[in-house]
């Protein structure tokens, strides 16, 4: 059985690596995102994780302990398959529905976060991008509770990793732009690996 430390590291990478791919695409489009904005997005991801982990903790007393790891493993595999499926889906043509009601569109076209086409992501647009990148932490945070990941420590690592991934992606946009589709698949693959490790 692999240690909690290794699983926590693998978990944090799975949750935050989307930020690198998104950063690459934003950097390629020459869209400006300040370091303050990067920190705001990372904090939002950490808060979403803590909120979902808190809900998971409330449910722990009502679930048989023997079911914890099975439930966590199956939920990780399910999340991983969902992320892979959602990234493999062909993009729907753009329509008139507001980006504010469909933040997931930002994951397909990060430049859509620049709602006012100012060439930069500011204010509410930072919240929009942060919400899109935080979607996976909501489900993953709930699952993380069942394999015993420490919530505050894990949330702190997610904040740090998201900052590093986003900043690195922005700076590496042109170099890695042709490979960003692989980064969008990696979170799902890593979550499936975590689930399979817990099932063995």
TrEMBL record:
Pfam families in the record, alphabetically? Mntp
The molecule here is called Sporulation membrane protein YtaF
- Is the keyword rRNA-binding in the record? no
Keyword Iron among record annotations: no
Keywords on this record? Cell membrane, Membrane, Transmembrane, Transmembrane helix
Highest rank taxon of the organism: Bacteria
What are the TM regions of this chain, as residue ranges? 6-28, 40-61, 67-85, 126-146, 152-170, 182-199
InterPro entries membership: Mntp/YtaF (IPR003810)
């Amino acid at each position: 059985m692999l240690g909690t430390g290794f699983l926590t590291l693998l978990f944090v990478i799975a949750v935050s690596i989307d930020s690198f791919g998104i950063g690459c695409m934003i950097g390629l489009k020459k869209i400006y995102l300040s370091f303050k904005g990067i920190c705001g997005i990372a904090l939002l991801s950490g808060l979403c994780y803590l909120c979902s982990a808190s809900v998971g903790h409330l449910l722990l007393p009502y679930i048989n302990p023997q079911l914890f790891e099975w439930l966590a493993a199956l939920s990780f595999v399910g999340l991983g398959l969902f992320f892979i499926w959602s990234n493999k889906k062909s993009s729907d043509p753009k329509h008139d529905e507001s980006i504010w009601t469909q933040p997931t569109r930002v994951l397909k076209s990060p430049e859509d976060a620049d709602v006012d086409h100012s060439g930069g992501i500011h204010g509410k647009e930072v919240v929009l991008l942060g919400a899109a990148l935080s979607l996976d932490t909501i489900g993953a945070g709930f699952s993380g509770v069942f394999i015993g990941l420490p919530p505050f420590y894990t949330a702190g690592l997610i904040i740090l990793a998201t900052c590093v991934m986003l900043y690195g992606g922005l700076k590496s946009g042109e170099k890695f732009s042709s490979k960003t589709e692989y980064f969008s698949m990696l979170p799902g693959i890593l979550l499936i690996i975590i689930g399979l490790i817990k099932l063995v």
